[in-house]
Specification:
The chain has 162 residues and is an alpha+beta fold. It has 4 helices and 8 strands, in the order βαβββαβββααβ. 28% of the residues lie in helices and 23% in strands. The protein is globular, with a radius of gyration of 15 Å.
């Protein structure tokens, strides 16, 4: 069994409902009750036009990282996400594996830790809530250092619940 951090984002449709559905799904595939961050609202990045709800969950899984990735992508599609999408485009649901145990993976279709998490406060703040002592095993950097060096974006913690 390994612990994995999954980042959740939604900026189309009923964003709160999508975060809640993702939470239920992650609870079903986790071997223990997931640890959930707060729900954060963040400005759109890149070409996205609508604000996001973001969160993260720490799950316990016996799925191989690639099998976990496929389950996450299948769930996104079941929720209405289009298979082909433009980078930074609006999305009904986005689930990303940020960490998987202490593994560092570099494959064509899977990189862990997630290759862009250091640039995303909307991933880093929820990660900090659920794993405050986490260290990037590919670089040895602490979460405090990574957050300090991340590009600033407008974000706020909401009072919403999963």
């Amino acid at each position: 069994m390994e612990q994995a951090v999954i980042a959740i984002g939604s900026n189309l449709g009923d964003r709160l409902e999508m975060v809640r559905k993702a939470g239920e799904f992650l609870g079903q595939i986790s071997m223990r009750k997931p640890v959930q961050s707060s729900i954060w609202e963040s400005e759109p990045v890149g070409g996205a036009k609508y604000t996001f709800y973001n969160a993260a969950a720490l799950i316990t899984t016996d799925l191989h990282p690639l099998a976990l990735l496929h389950k996450l992508k299948d769930f996104e599609m079941a929720c209405g996400r289009k298979k082909e999408y433009t980078r930074w485009s609006p999305r009904i649901l986005d689930l990303d594996i940020i960490t998987y145990g202490n593994l560092v993976i570099e494959m064509d279709n899977l990189i862990i830790p997630h290759p862009e998490y250091k640039k995303r406060l909307f991933v880093l703040y929820p990660l900090e809530e659920i794993c405050p002592a986490w260290v990037d095993h590919s670089t040895g950097e602490s979460l405090d250092v990574i957050i300090k060096n991340a590009p600033d974006i407008e974000m706020k913690k909401t009072e919403l619940e999963w």
